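REQUEST ID: PR-0412
SUBMITTED BY: lab tech R.K.
PRIORITY: routine
TASK: structure prediction, single protein chain
INPUT:
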Amino acid sequence: MTDIFDSTLDNVKVEISDNKLEKGGEVNITAKDPTMNNIIVAVGWQLNSFDADSLDVDVSCFLLDKKGKTRVDEDFIFYNNLTDMDESIVHNGDNLTGAGDGDDETISIDLNKIPFDINKVMFILSIYRGEEKGQQMSSVRNGYIRMINTSNGQEMLRYEISPDVAESQGETGMRVASLNREGPKWHFEAVGELVQGGLAEVATEYDIIVHAG
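STATUS: complete
OUTPUT:
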């Protein structure tokens, strides 16, 4: 028999047998495993063989307060700032090519360490210098984001982004997923929102001053 998890927030039903989410799907991960405190958020992608330039896709995240803004610069975790002030979130390094199978970049998260005034952790996929190279999110092949329980290595959720990036019309970034706090509970949401202007545009929206160069 296939077990069904029913989110108490929005009644989105997810089959635990495959853990697949589609755009807009949201799961109460605290209810799914109340003992889970440490997770890994991992992304992977492959190159289109006909691309002249290698595709450098980056995963970043923003710690957002109740106003949907960052509090300090360190709330922006990316390849040049690998952790926040509380070390609740750690970026495990930049992969420049996406070569090979499996996860290309990972972010480790201790849910218990995330400050109480943070309501959302937003994850962004972006193409480094995508505009300069004429690349866009539709160049990302077999892309995904998944969540793993660190204690046992079990994949809890997976969102395949390929159907949604195929709609790209020049965008070089995507708000791909988020962790949303609801009191003591955490929900994982597959956002799938393409963004014009890539990472710099998102950072500016969240009150990060982006320096050119």
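NOTES: DSSP finds four helices and 14 strands in the chain.
REVIEWED BY: pending
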